[in-house]
Amino acid sequence: MAIKPKYVKQLATTLLEKYPEAFNTDFETNKENVTKLTTVESKGVRNRVAGYITRKKAGVV
Q: Is the pLDDT of residue 1 over 70?
């Protein structure tokens, strides 16, 4: 099953809107928080969401 970029971006944006204080520019911290705040079971999806949030917080995206 392919991971759709639209799904990753929508989930990350929703998480950032609901829990802005839970995320920062550290990937490992964001990865743990994505695990706590969502029901995503796939490690690949979790990592992509955490990576997108990290880049967005760093101002790269």
A: no
